[in-house]
Amino acid sequence: MHELVLTDVLQKFKETEAVREFSYTFSNGVYGLLGENGAGKTTLLRLICGILQPTGGTIICDGMPVYEMGAEYRRLLGYLPQEFGYYEDFTALRFLKYMAALKGLSKEYAETRIKELLDLVDLECVKNKKLRTYSGGMIRRVGIAQALLNEPEILILDEPTAGLDPKERVRFRNIISALGKDRIVLLSTHIVSDVEYIADHILIMKKGELIQKGTERQITEKARGHVWKCLVLEQEMQKLNDKYIVSNLRNSGADVELRIISEKQPTEDAKPVDVTLEDAYLYHTQMSGGRKNEII
Ligand SMILES: Nc1ncnc2c1ncn2[C@@H]1O[C@H](COP(=O)(O)OP(=O)(O)OP(=O)(O)O)[C@@H](O)[C@H]1O
């Protein structure tokens, strides 16, 4: 089992602090990293992969700074970047063979492993088709397969579910759950439902900082009592929508059923309801001092 310890990590790009005061320890399990666009997720993942060396703080794997470990660290690591480069004229099989060679895997091992992975990501029957003919979801699955070639013990996936259809998402979740049993799996997304059922730990970033961490239950617990359901007339809806964070709305005859995130009861007949991770995510990222955040 590996331990990855981040202490006061800071990444500056000129004046922008893309990641700041980030401290956290990862060990085996699935970690879901949530945050809006620009929150600093990609930067954090690139730091953990050793692609960037932090402006400040340390990233230590089993007692050694990752940027000093070189090839030894790369052997442990599997990485799916947000956009991974590939040659459109390559078939999936050729691409995976090429990636296996880059990772220094032996030919015999690569052959067996590629077969296993093509089965795992359900691309075996189209492995000889050129990547230019693949859908976005299929390309993503090729990306997941390449990240797994070296049986990484630390697997970093940046928005792995982008472009996947609902059936592919379910398949992906099952794959990730199984992988998280005996390695560190860290995946970033801005889609809460992607990590809701599979992540053992949830991390929420906002403006470069880690603003919440814990199990799904711990994160939702903190928002308890701040999620409400109420039925309102259609003409009242806009007013409430402007004033509060509305996590869902559903037409119900002449009325509209609203799900509202608010520290105070938003209407007289609003009832508190059970908190989902989606509600909690909105609560933690978009509320400040009990009011709707000015930035949204
Ligand atoms: N190479 C870079 N040079 C300058 N600024 C950068 C660079 N990379 C990231 N940033 C800035 O750092 C901040 C965090 O970006 P980052 O891509 O890490 O966020 P993110 O949460 O991954 O968002 P997204 O989901 O949109 O990729 C943004 O303000 C971004 O513009």
TrEMBL record:
Gene Ontology molecular function: ATP binding; ATP hydrolysis activity
Residue ranges annotated for the ABC transporter domain, each copy included: 4-232
SMART domains reported in the protein's UniProt record: AAA (SM00382)
Coiled coil spans: none
UniProt keyword terms in alphabetical order: ATP-binding, Nucleotide-binding, Transport
InterPro entries membership: AAA+_ATPase (IPR003593), ABC_transporter-like_ATP-bd (IPR003439), ABC_transporter-like_CS (IPR017871), P-loop_NTPase (IPR027417)
Domain of life: Bacteria
Keyword Magnesium tagged: no
Protein family per UniProt: Belongs to the ABC transporter superfamily.
Name of the featured protein: ABC-2 type transport system ATP-binding protein
